[in-house]
Design brief:
Blueprint lengths: L2 H11 L4 H8 L3 H8 L7 H10 L4 H20 L3 H13 L2 H19 L4
Helix pairs in contact: 4-5, 5-6
Amino acid sequence: MSFGDKLKGERTEREVSLIDLHEETGLSTGYLSRIENEQQIPAPRYVEKIASGLDLEDDEVRELLEERDKLALVERFGLDPEVADIAVALNERLEPDQRAAVLEDVRERIESVTNGGA
């Protein structure tokens, strides 16, 4: 499920209209609609504002922010969606020392593959 779908799903599940969410967040209904339709990638602070307006739990907010980050990587930088999933997971779910170890393993594997190894 994409970022916009997740956001709209959370909103409709809670029976909150775009007007209601506008009143809670101060964000325009047009802007909120563009976010849900993935025509606009909101800054993390706006995702948090929307999440607060929907009374989302911390894990739901974290999930929305991860989806937003994936969308930004795909849309802005042209990353493959699966690569974006891995990048966000590396950044959000691993401690710095774990991340460094995984990145080193990936670099070695890429080097091996690009130099004709298997």
